[in-house]
Amino acid sequence: SMRILAGLWDFKVPFTLRTGNVVINKENNENNESLRYVSELFKMYIGVVVPKGTKINIDTFIYKGSESEPDEKGYFMVKDEFRRNTKTQAWARKFDPFLMIATDRSLLEDVSSKMRIEKAERPAQIRMALGDFGGTDIGKILKAYLYARDRQVSSGGALQLQAVQQQLRPRDILFALEEMQGRKVLCPLGGKYIQDPAQPALWKSTAWQEPALYLVNQVPKDYSHPLLDDTKWLRLDFAIDQDTLSTRLDIQTKYPVK
């Protein structure tokens, strides 16, 4: 059977954190949706492992303005309809047993030179691997999104406490809310909920650097998330047969797990 593979390389997305939300800076693309604009910045490749005896007509992919045949290493430019971003020229390479397409030639040269088939430890129909996001451009925007979400959830917890205080006026507000919810009231940022000394009717978290969500315009330097800062790599396998779907998740952390 034909096997399909794909990979996403690190790429930079211009963004700002504004009023507690991540805003994509769409340079000269103000009318585009953010997701579509980000997809145009992707640095990625996709390929197939061609089964023996199967012939693929690469003329389907070859760019009309280039030579009709691949060069001596199998590289050729790709037609416009196979490109997501019209600002750059996508390239393909045919080398047994692979056919690969990438968003630019330098990426294709780097990836295809290392591509090989290895025997897997266990059978699976779908495999996914994530590397270390620390220090990457993708990691920066992911951290901004994660912080924005945690800060919003933290603000929601404070508002809950304020509502309980105003409506029920219990002696121990935290205890009352935990009894109603059946769980501990925890700040996702790791802080502790307290009443504002200047305004006792309001609640806040000791982890907040700004008193209100709309004032949040940057990710704190000490903010960390396990997926981005503690994970070295993650691998996920899906094995499917007629009766069952089984999964296996392997995680390598940067630090010993206590």
Short description:
Helix content is 23%, strand content 25%. The protein is an alpha+beta fold and 258 residues long. Strands 1-4-7-6-5 form a five-stranded antiparallel beta sheet, with helices on one face.
Question: What's the shape?
Answer: elongated
| Spatial extent as radius of gyration | 25 Å
Strand content: 25-35%
Distance between the termini: 44 Å
Total number of beta strands = 12
**How can the largest sheet be summarized?**
5 strands, antiparallel
What structural category characterises the helix and strand content?
Answer: alpha+beta
Q: What is the helix/strand order?
A: EEEHEEEEHEHHEEHEE
Strand order of the largest sheet: 1-4-7-6-5
Question: Whole-number average pLDDT?
Answer: 87
Model regions low in confidence, pLDDT < 50 over at least 5 residues: none
Helix content: 10-25%
Compute the number of helices: 5
Give an overview in words.
This protein is an alpha+beta fold and 258 residues long. It is built from 5 helices and 12 strands. The protein has helices at residues 34-40, 105-112, 137-167, 173-181, 226-230, and strands at 3-9, 15-18, 21-24, 43-49, 75-77, 91-95, 98-102, 126-130, 193-195, 203-205, 231-240, 245-253. A 5-stranded antiparallel beta sheet has the order 1-4-7-6-5, with helices on one face. It has a 3-stranded antiparallel beta sheet with strand order 8-11-12. A hairpin with a 2-residue loop joins strand 2 and strand 3 (21-24). Helix 3 (137-167) crosses helix 4 (173-181). The longest helix is centred in the middle third of the chain and has 31 residues, at 137-167. It is elongated, with a radius of gyration of 25 Å. 11% of the residues are buried. The model has no long low-confidence stretch (mean pLDDT 87).
